[in-house]
Amino acid sequence: MENQGEFHLQQRKGRRVILFPLPLQGHINPMLQLASILYNKGFSISIIHTNFNSLNSSNYPHFSFHSIPDGLSQSEASFADMVALLSLLNVKCVAPFQDCLGKLLSNSVDGEKIACLITDAVWYFTQTVAENLKVPRLVLRTNSVSSFLVFAAFPLLREKGYMPAQDCEPEAPVPELPPLRVKDIPVFETRIPETLHQVQLGLINQTRVSSGCIWNSFQDLEQVSLATLQKEFPVPMFPIGPFHKYFPASSSSLLSQDRSAISWLDKQQPKSVIYVSFGSVAAINDTEFLETAWGLANSMVPFLWVVRPGLVRGAEWTEPLPKGFLEMLDGRGHIVKWAPQQEILAHPAIGGFWTHNGWNSTLESICEGVPMICQPCFGDQMVNARYVSHVWKIGLHLERKLEREEIEKTIKRVMLEEEGQEMRERIMYLKEKADICLKQGGSSYQSLENLINYILSF
Q1: What 3-state class would DSSP assign to 71?
Q2: Can the peptide bond before residue 302 be classed as cis, meaning omega within 30 degrees of 0?
Q3: Rounded distance between C-alpha atoms, residue 314 and residue 286, angstroms
Q4: pLDDT at 256 over 70
Q5: Mean of the per-residue pLDDT values for the chain?
Q6: Stretch 103-114: mean pLDDT, rounded?
Q7: What fold is seen in the domain 260-434?
Q8: Average pLDDT of 273-280?
Q9: Where are the domains of the chain?
Q10: 2-241+440-456 has which CATH code?
């Protein structure tokens, strides 16, 4: 058996995989984790990336990096209209990407064979380029399977009048997509609704004709959604997640991390701290910021709060806080600009996570057995929050306006009450499942073996 493994490794040496991440923090992380997983399995790795949100290649000396111009002007390179940004990138990157990929295919060194291209599913233009250059294209979908099924249902939702949801009662169920309600359907603020339609169709249709789809998820977590997906998308599926569990906490963070969070946590009681972070893109106004601050303070629960510069619209950092706010808490609160999230969630002092429910954060919370307070902002976060609160029952959805009383009550329910304890037990069960699926014989372990053999078959 050992010799066969040795033979497979030899076979992979001399095979190169080219990956093309979407230049957003929540998409870069899983793509680079996937690259590391494949590198550890013996493949050579090339990464093509845009100048926009450019990557730090020095963190990955064993990969080769190729930067392409994205043609974005300063005003276009903005997160204000995410849909417009993604649409522009899919237009402006076509020629530079084709040029770069063409060069890589014709200049392969030492008889190395380029096995395939793996792109973020949102780079839908790459399917045509890959077909023209005769290279198989697999896609990585960085969100949950459950939210992808909702995106795939957009045409149906549009037809049934759920989108845009003008006449629908927000609390009404969407019978076509249980357990969602109208208010859980992903929302994207955009000046040009037609563009959203194009981006979404591109994403779905070009995934459908790709050579296969890789998921940062696992069988035990999304069994029902995966079964539905297989029926609707007849391409090979590889749920090999959770990606970040394949190696010790690594970071491809675009923001520098503040280590003081860890030393502060070291002084706290086990499971006593609520960790608060709304990811790398979300923004709130100063009223919401103040209500959040007072809700945290009044709960009397120790908190570690990530306030990213730019989180509060119109403020540099924490200026809207009342004078002496942190001093008044007498060490019970700690605020940082950015933090090593995986390490924090794994810290014994953490007892809850107040999150925007991006998929990476949701998965990291599940893998560390930390129950959640869900406050989704846009896109797939709505779907993730609904699954966390109503399917897996491992968190509470903070749905009303951000008001200090509501925040205080919700924090206490998760951190101090019986209800929170029950969520903790359920999420610990999922944490065990996440650990088992990566071990020999587990579903993700097997799925990765299948993926490797599949790449070798090209």
Answers
A1: coil
A2: no
A3: 8
A4: no
A5: 92
A6: 85
A7: Rossmann fold (3.40.50)
A8: 92
A9: 2-241+440-456, 260-434
A10: 3.40.50.2000
